[in-house]
């Protein structure tokens, strides 16, 4: 097996399983360190040990791959991953409107996120790094976001488009954490609440309704903010009037996000049913923070299919021209 491919696959599987970011980054660093080396150099163990990024675990993977077999750690990861029942809806998804890069709190460069999206067969991927209020996630100031736009526009060809975007924080009064004019330049705006999630029901309802009433907003991200599993622990869902919020989404053409991260499972099933009844559109998104997490769409698609959401009401099944006509409208 090719050692570089083995290291990258291990990193990807660790990312999909939401393992410690340090573990996946270690395998990506080792892959970068040996990129371009021929077999003679790869068999020079003392020289490999001197390479920055190659440690005992990654060296073992390289040596086992060179020996002709699947490295034991890779075989273990392949056999222990989360399984998701095949979903017909997953095959209809053309892209993803929520993902992060190392420009904010993502783990890797934009180009690796693009490569992973292409490998999944996506026609488009929105890059939605955080806005400035979220300092813990290195949110993008207006200046940094403008600089990113020039980079993003370089990742477009006849078969794939990287969309400009942002996950903009919904502030306590329902306003958005970025310049209005700049939001208007973006292909996709995902609006999410990340703070004061335990607000009382009435002010939280007003907050979310105000956000989705903003003409720049396209997608309401992880609406309840809940966490149901994972290393970050659990967090109860925000309290708000779902009929009022989802009626506002339907009125303003804002899609309700089906967040595919297993630790979120957001919205809960009962809120998906209310959004369906209110006539909402939906976006099945990965909320990926690393290349391997783009494949989490499997989880979101399975939930959406089980909830009976018609594919035509899921904007991420739409071709790019229809999607952009909707976001620009």
CATH topology of the largest domain: TIM Barrel
Number of strands: 7
Strand content: 5-15%
Q: Helix/strand-derived class?
A: alpha/beta
CATH architecture of the largest domain: Alpha-Beta Barrel
What is the overall silhouette? elongated
* End-to-end gap: 49 Å
The CATH superfamily of the largest domain is identified as: Metal-dependent hydrolases
CATH class of the largest domain, named Alpha Beta
Strand count, sense and barrel status of the largest sheet are: 7 strands, parallel
The whole-angstrom Rg is: 21 Å
Low-confidence stretches: none
Q: Which secondary structure elements does this structure contain, and how are they paired or packed?
A:
Layout: H1 3-16, H2 21-34, H3 39-42, H4 45-50, H5 56-66, H6 72-80, E1 95-96, H7 110-119, E2 124-127, H8 142-152, E3 161-169, H9 180-183, E4 188-192, H10 201-212, E5 219-220, H11 242-252, E6 255-259, H12 269-277, E7 281-285, H13 297-306, H14 320-328
Parallel strand pairs: 1-2, 2-3, 3-4, 4-5, 5-6, 6-7
Helix pairs in contact: 1-2, 1-5, 1-6, 10-11
Gist?
With 329 residues, this protein is of the alpha/beta class. Helices cover 41% and strands 10% of the residues.
Q: What can you tell me about this protein's structure?
A:
With 329 residues, this protein is α/β, with parallel strands linked by helices. The chain has 2 domains: 3-80, DNA polymerase, domain 1; 89-328, Metal-dependent hydrolases (TIM Barrel, Alpha-Beta Barrel). It is built from 14 helices and 7 strands. The protein has helices at 3-16, 21-34, 39-42, 45-50, 56-66, 72-80, 110-119, 142-152, 180-183, 201-212, 242-252, 269-277, 297-306, 320-328, and strands spanning 95-96, 124-127, 161-169, 188-192, 219-220, 255-259, 281-285. The protein has a 7-stranded parallel β-sheet. Strand 2, helix 8 and strand 3 (161-169) form a beta-alpha-beta unit. The radius of gyration is 21 Å and the shape is elongated. The relative contact order is 0.13.
């Amino acid at each position: 097996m090719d050692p570089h491919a083995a290291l990258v696959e291990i990193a990807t599987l660790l990312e999909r399983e939401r393992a410690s970011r340090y573990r996946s980054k270690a395998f990506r660093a080792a892959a970068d360190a040996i990129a371009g080396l021929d077999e003679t150099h790869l068999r020079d163990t003392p020289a490999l040990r001197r390479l920055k990024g190659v440690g005992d675990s990654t060296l073992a993977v390289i040596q086992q791959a060179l020996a002709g077999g699947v490295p034991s750690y890779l075989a273990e990861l392949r056999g222990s991953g989360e399984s998701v029942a095949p979903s017909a809806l997953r095959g209809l998804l053309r892209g993803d409107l929520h993902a992060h890069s190392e420009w904010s709190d993502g783990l890797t460069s934009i180009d690796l996120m693009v490569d992973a999206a292409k490998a999944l067969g996506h026609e488009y991927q929105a890059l939605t790094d955080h806005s400035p209020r979220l300092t813990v996630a290195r949110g993008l100031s207006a200046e940094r976001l403008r600089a990113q736009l020039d980079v993003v526009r370089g990742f477009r060809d006849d078969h794939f488009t990287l969309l400009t975007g942002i996950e903009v924080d919904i502030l306590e009064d329902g306003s958005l954490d970025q310049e209005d004019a700049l939001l208007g330049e973006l292909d996709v705006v995902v609006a999410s609440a990340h703070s004061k999630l335990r607000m009382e029901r009435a002010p939280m309802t007003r907050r979310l309704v105000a956000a989705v009433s903003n003409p720049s907003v396209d997608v309401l991200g992880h609406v309840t903010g809940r966490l149901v599993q994972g290393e970050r622990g659990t967090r109860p869902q925000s309290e708000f009037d779902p009929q009022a919020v989802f009626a506002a989404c339907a009125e303003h053409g804002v899609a309700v996000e089906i967040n595919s991260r297993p630790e979120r499972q957001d919205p809960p099933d009962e809120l998906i049913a209310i959004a369906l009844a209110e006539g909402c559109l939906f976006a099945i998104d990965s909320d990926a923070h690393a290349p391997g997490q783009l494949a989490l769409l499997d989880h979101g698609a399975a939930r959406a299919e089980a909830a009976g959401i018609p594919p035509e009401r899921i904007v991420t099944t739409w071709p790019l021209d229809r999607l952009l006509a909707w976001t620009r409208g």
